[in-house]
Write a structure and sequence with these properties.
Bound molecules: flavin-adenine dinucleotide, NADP nicotinamide-adenine-dinucleotide phosphate
Number of strands: 19
Low-confidence stretches: none
Strand content: 25-35%
Mean pLDDT: 97
Order of helices and strands: EEHEEEEEHEEEEHEHHEEHEEHEEHE
Radius of gyration: 20 Å
Length: 338
């Protein structure tokens, strides 16, 4: 069992935050997980899993044991029916490579989720979503090690308690170490093209999962900063849900408010709220700021520390609250060190 001490994480988080792990171990074999959890527990150390580091704000010093997820492999399981293929994907696989692999295999279900950074094992944590599709639309099961009960567990889709950018894994933070997920992918193409930039595809006679994937990639590359060039963690805030009366009040005052119905409530576009507060392209003295092409993305060009990011977060939250009376919730997870 190789456990390293004092490992640099600054190149392992896409916000580029300077951070170090007290202890670190690479997971290349799932059988090692119980013994590593036991090792940490016997020393009263917290255990955390690191995937691609694209949805995290880290404190400078992360106490405890960080497990670098490196389980690889894609396995085809028995088909549940004539048009569906069931696949088991190991947690350390790259998400976007999986999307590309599925599309090249002629399978549909993941094409709208192209170019989301990070690993397969992290996808259930916030039920990743984009362009009208969420992971929960194709996920059948999750396998994980429960660090509290020290046993292997399997969850069905319903047991994952998926919601908008949410799941039981997010609520019970750091309890489960996800090792694989099972997905049902379809040989029948059922395009989801409701989002503005994809609507133009509806009239194409060459419509295919591959065309949707390529279109999503092109849109994302034109709007979002590549973390390799400008450190960021994607959308920094969730789109807030408000009641119908609140929405109506806001709409009266701000007629161009961008909002979408969700059941009886309304989802407000957080990027629009931030933009309307004049914060798009503006920055903290550390350089942390709201990206000039998409205000919802916080960028960290100077690789400032987590404290600067949280200061700017609070500034954005309080400005939006003062202007619209709406509270923005941070989307990336906080590793606060303890
Ligand atoms: P990490 O950042 O490494 O981890 C995030 C959290 O998950 C941490 O709490 C970690 O402990 C936990 N975790 C990671 N792996 C495991 C595991 N195997 N078992 C248990 N816990 C684990 N998100 C979207 O939903 N939609 C988008 O369209 C989207 N676009 C993005 C665009 C950009 C440019 C960036 C930088 C981010 C974007 N994100 C998006 C956010 C992010 O990519 C996703 O949330 C992604 O799933 C995070 O994966 P990761 O491997 O980097 O997770
Ligand atoms: P956009 O197309 O400019 O739209 C702004 C917001 O409006 C989005 O957040 C989206 O909500 C919502 N929206 C747009 N059309 C909608 C529709 N037809 N029905 C319901 N809601 C609609 O957004 P963007 O920033 O370029 O992102 C495009 C997609 O990629 C979005 O789905 C977004 O969530 C996803 N994305 C996520 C991250 C992340 O880190 N989480 C980063 C980049 C992009 P939703 O966000 O709820 O979809």
């Amino acid at each position: 069992m190789t456990v390293q001490r004092d490992v640099d994480l600054s190149r392992r988080n896409t916000l580029g935050v300077p951070a170090r792990a007290e202890y670190w171990a690479d997971i290349t074999d799932r059988a090692r997980i119980p013994e590593l959890v036991d090792w940490a527990r016997s020393r009263s150390l917290a255990v955390r899993v690191l995937g691609g580091g694209s949805n995290l704000v880290m404190a400078p010093r992360i106490h405890g044991l960080v497990l670098g997820m490196n389980l690889r492999g894609r396995e085809r399981l028995e088909n549940p029916n004539a048009v569906t293929e069931r696949w088991r994907i190991q947690a350390g696989e790259n998400w976007h490579e999986l999307v590309r692999f599925s599309v090249e295999a002629g399978l549909s279900g993941l094409e709208n989720l192209a170019l989301i950074p990070g690993q397969v094992g992290a996808a259930p944590i916030q039920n990743i979503g984009a362009y009208g599709v969420e992971l929960c639309d194709t996920l059948i099961a999750v396998e994980a090690f429960d660090t509290e009960e020290q046993q292997w567990v399997q969850f069905t889709n319903a047991q994952c308690r998926f919601a908008y950018r949410d799941s039981r894994f997010k609520r019970e933070a750091n309890r489960y170490i996800i090792t694989s997920i099972d997905l049902d992918l379809s040989r029948e193409f059922k395009p989801v093209l409701d989002y503005g930039p994809l609507q133009a595809l509806k009239d194409r006679n060459d419509l295919s999962p591959s065309l949707v994937m390529d279109t999503v990639i092109a849109i994302r590359q034109s709007k979002l900063p590549d973390p390799a060039d400008i450190p960021n963690a994607g959308s920094f805030f969730k789109n807030p849900l408000v009641s119908d009366p609140t929405y109506r009040q806001l709409k009266q005052r701000w007629p161009d408010l961008v909002a979408y119905p969700v059941g009886a409530d309304w989802k407000l576009a957080a990027g629009w709220l931030i933009d309307r507060c004049g914060l798009k392209g503006r920055a903290h003295r550390s350089g942390v700021g709201c990206y000039e092409k998409q205000a919802l993305v916080l960028v960290n060009p100077n690789r400032a520390d987590g404290t600067s990011i949280l200061e700017w977060q609070r500034h954005v939250q309080s400005t939006v609250k003062q202007t619209f009376g709406v509270r923005l919730e941070r989307e990336p997870r906080l590793w606060n060190g303890g």
